[in-house]
Inverse folding.
């Protein structure tokens, strides 16, 4: 789809397309209201600005639209609409050792218990071991610090997905 195609969509159809990039209802609605965009650069800037001005509740809503890192079955079931993108983003997990997958599962549980949402990382280009190292490095964070790290990771994911939408 091109930017012209996205600009031309009916608002409901465009909202559905945007929701594949970010699961925060407020982000989708606010960005959708600002169409049409003159360039992809302006679209990306608006998407980023809107994201960073949302509430923590909105950020957490977006996080619920992701499978856990390494949870291949969730990719195919719960997240069918973005499964292909998420599978590509987490592609390195397929080559992970059983030990790494077990450590990711344990780390994911610890992270969710501590922070109340799943571990969010822009997985594109990262090996399973790199994602595990990032998870372990972020576990000691204070919750007020970690929400901003997770928000930043979601912003990267959203940007990449907007690029894929417009590819």
């Amino acid at each position: 789809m091109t930017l012209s195609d996205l600009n031309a969509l009916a608002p409901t159809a465009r909202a559905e397309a945007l929701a594949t990039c970010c699961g925060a209802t407020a982000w989708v609605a606010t960005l959708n209201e600002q169409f049409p965009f003159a360039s992809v650069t302006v679209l990306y800037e608006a998407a980023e600005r809107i994201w960073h001005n949302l509430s923590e509740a909105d950020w957490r809503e977006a996080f619920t639209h992701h499978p856990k890192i390494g949870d291949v079955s969730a990719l195919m079931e719960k997240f069918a609409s973005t499964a292909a993108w998420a599978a590509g983003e987490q592609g390195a997990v397929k080559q992970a050792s059983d030990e790494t997958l077990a450590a990711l599962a344990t780390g994911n549980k610890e992270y969710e218990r501590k922070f109340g949402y799943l571990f969010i990382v822009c997985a594109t280009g990262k090996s399973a071991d790199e994602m595990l190292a990032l998870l372990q490095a972020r576990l000691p964070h204070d919750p007020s610090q970690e929400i901003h790290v997770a928000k930043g990771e979601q912003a990267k994911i959203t940007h990449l997905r907007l690029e894929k939408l417009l590819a």
Remarks:
- The two ends are 6 Å apart (CA to CA).
- The chain is about 65% helix and 0% strand.
- The first helix runs from residue 3 to 8.
- The chain has a mean pLDDT of 89.
